[in-house]
Amino acid sequence: MHKLRVEEMGRLEVAEFKVAEKLPVVMVLDNIRSLHNVGSVFRTADAFRLQRVCLCGITGCPPQQEIHKTALGAEDSVDWQYYPTTEEALAALRAEGYTIYSIEQVEGSLKLDEISLSSNGRYALVMGNEVKGVQQQVVDASDACIEIPQFGTKHSLNVSVTAGIVMWEFARQLGFTK
Known about the structure:
Elements: H1 14-19, E1 23-30, H2 35-47, E2 50-56, H3 65-71, H4 74-77, E3 80-83, H5 86-95, E4 99-103, E5 110-111, E6 123-127, H6 136-140, E7 144-147, H7 159-173
Parallel strand pairs: 1-2, 1-6, 2-3, 4-6, 4-7, 5-7
């Protein structure tokens, strides 16, 4: 066994990525403060070949050095859009036929390990602010909320870690991991 070199991994070039089939998932960032978290979400969205990332409110947009530092160029491969408010993004996504899930701990939330996705569905996943989480009005505008089961003393995970876990589960259920 040897560690693979980049050339051995068979990764797509940016131009190939742009035209490749995408996972029918859009990541929505609701007022994310840290540009490093934004960059990390871009990098993971590239890894799972998401359709796009919606940057909302105070969430920083490329080009910015802090985003590039963690995205490592994924901000160039993954399509993105900016919206002044998350509600505007959700209205546009709903009009495109997306089911909207906020990733938040709420009464009646669905546990990530218990959801069942439709293979022909389109999904928008809302990640909330590092301190305040997903805004209540955004939770109210969502079709449902998903929660990652946790078993330690802390009540939450880092937003980019949460995004990665949720993206993996959506990719797994929608058959993008084969």
